[in-house]
Design goal:
heterodimer, A: 395 residues, Rossmann fold, 2 domains, seven-stranded mixed β-sheet, 41% helix, B: 119 residues, two-stranded antiparallel sheet, 5 strands, 8% helix
Chain lengths: 395, 119
């Protein structure tokens, strides 16, 4: 077999990556718009193409619980979910990270209820952002495919041993068919290698208790240990991306992608598929001689504070454009993170927060040029009056 | 199984720093709960009347904390008393004793027991 180019939806591309990784256990519950992954992977299991033990559980809470059990037993484990499913997993997310279970989860980013909505935004993973999982956000189907393979290596690295969420936008990525270059099955097999678990409940020579009770005398030490581990994981994440890019001729940024940022005065910072629209808007304004750029954040956890500051410190204005909001909060998640991370920096651009594309609302080039123009007007005045603005909202 | 990762092999190792916490807070090996001196939780303490006691071992079987001290001589077992470092004073032994040889007395009785665990 060799590499081949095929037309696949983002979900099918992820299912193909899972087939090539051939995990020992997949415990999963279907939910729109992740269902295509489960269906396709279920076919692979039924056809005997993978050796995976497929656990069709009764809820997402059970799915992730089953994953924790199987990975504690020493099995390479994957799951996938979306929106309400991730919310139902919330309790177990913290357990998976605290017990250092290297589970890989594909989350198709979809809005949370209410009102009930099946379309794309980032409120699901943003709601679970502090659980201790590594978060990677994908630009397109190709990146979703590659990220699934990369995430397996990151999670299972002995310096990391942490669960990883790979986020891809609902429908924009999950259901749109695009040209995907699939690697050779053996290439993927060699790249991910054998899973070497931190411990195994089935290993009678080394008996362990996993998930033991911890009194106040050690809980804070355990949490500090988790914090340092996830912060130090950044180095490994970068190394594994570099290895992958070099081996397979890809160009996937580990932390972030910068677009026309070299001499930019104004920039949009965003995640996932909507950054493509921002890049087109930047092209349009560049043709008029306005110096604008785009930063696509790929690694949200651990939060790359220093790298982001390096990219924004010379700007006049920065628009943080987000497909999620923090209700009752001062600003949406990325804006809060970034302003917190830069709290003691002296040289900072003026920053404004724009909420866009909630519940799958189309994000148009005009929306992005409007954001740039609004930002420039405000920076000229020297003041951001409206810290948070909703874009394209009626009324 | 990754042999390179950090583990606690010695029970009751004291004052671990956050860097020494084994991966995922896992506990390696058995009998780690002996490190936890639950005797300080006690509000009442058991007292055995050895004249009544038949050494039937019912209290040993039912004690939730392995706090019944037992000696073995050839094929015979003898109930000696209680482990003050771990006995929480729950009173289960007193309830299950078929000859009512164990009495629960109000007070922790730290004065009359060894108390290195109180430090």
């Amino acid at each position: 077999m060799a590499r081949k180019n095929v037309g696949l939806t983002g979900d099918y591309a992820v299912a193909e990556a899972m087939r090539q990784i051939d995990p020992d256990v997949v415990a999963v519950y279907p939910i729109t718009p992740q269902t295509l992954i489960v269906e396709k992977f279920g076919e692979f299991v039924a056809d005997g193409i993978v050796h995976t033990e497929f656990v069709p559980v009764e809820s997402e809470h059970s799915a992730l619980s089953a994953c924790c059990g199987s990975v504690a037993a020493g099995a390479r484990t994957m799951t996938c979910t979306s929106s309400q499913g991730l919310a139902l997993m919330h309790e177990i997310l913290y357990i998976a990270a605290g017990n250092r279970h290297p589970i890989v989860m594909i989350d198709v980013n979809r809005a949370l209820s209410a009102p009930i909505n099946i379309h794309g935004d980032h409120s699901d993973t943003m709601g679970s952002r502090d659980a201790g999982w590594i978060h990677l956000y994908c630009f397109n189907g190709q990146e979703a495919y590659d990220s699934t393979i990369i995430a397996t290596r990151i999670a299972e690295n002995s310096k990391v041993y942490l669960p990883v969420i790979v986020g891809l936008d609902a429908f924009n990525i999950s259901h749109n068919t695009e040209r995907i270059e699939l690697l050779d099955d053996n290439e993927v097999k060699d790249f991910v290698g054998e899973f070497n678990p931190p411990y195994s409940l089935l290993d009678l020579k080394y008996p362990v208790s996993v998930g033991a009770y911890c009194l106040p005398d050690y809980y804070i030490e355990a949490r500090k240990n988790l914090q340092e581990t996830i912060q130090n994981a950044k180095k490994v994440i970068v190394e594994i991306h570099e290895e992958y890019n070099k081996k397979f001729g890809r160009n996937i940024p580990a932390i972030m992608e910068t677009y026309k940022m070299e001499d930019a005065e104004y920039a949009i910072l965003a995640m996932s598929s909507i950054t493509g629209v921002a890049m087109l808007a930047a092209d349009e304004l560049r043709s008029k001689g306005i110096k604008v750029g785009v930063i696509r954040l790929r690694l949200f956890r651990p939060f790359p504070a220093e790298e982001l500051y390096g990219a924004i410190s010379n700007l006049k204005g920065l628009a943080v454009v987000e497909r999620a909001d923090a209700y009752g909060g001062a600003s949406a998640p990325i804006f809060s993170e970034l302003s917190g991370a830069c709290a003691n920096k002296k040289k900072m651009p003026l920053m404004a927060n724009y909420i866009i594309g909630l519940g799958g609302r189309d994000v148009k080039i005009k929306d992005m040029t409007n954001i740039f123009e609004n930002l420039m007007v405000n920076v000229d005045k020297g003041e951001i009056k409206d810290l948070r603005q909703y874009i394209g909202v009626k009324g | 199984m990754n042999k390179d990762i950090k583990r606690i092999e010695i029970p009751c190792q004291e004052k671990l720093g956050w860097k020494d916490i084994p991966v995922g807070g896992s506990l390696v090996g058995g009998s780690n709960s002996t490190c936890l001196k639950t005797g300080t939780w006690r509000m009442q303490h058991p007292k055995v009347n050895k004249d009544k006691c038949t050494n039937c071992m019912t209290c040993w079987l039912f004690c939730p904390d392995m706090s019944i001290v037992v000696a073995k001589e050839s094929e015979k077992y003898e109930m000696l008393g209680f482990d003050p470092a771990h006995c929480k004073g729950c009173g289960v032994c007193s309830k299950v004793c078929p000859v009512k040889a164990i009495e629960m007395i109000l007070g922790a009785d730290f004065e009359n027991t060894e108390k290195p665990f109180l430090k």
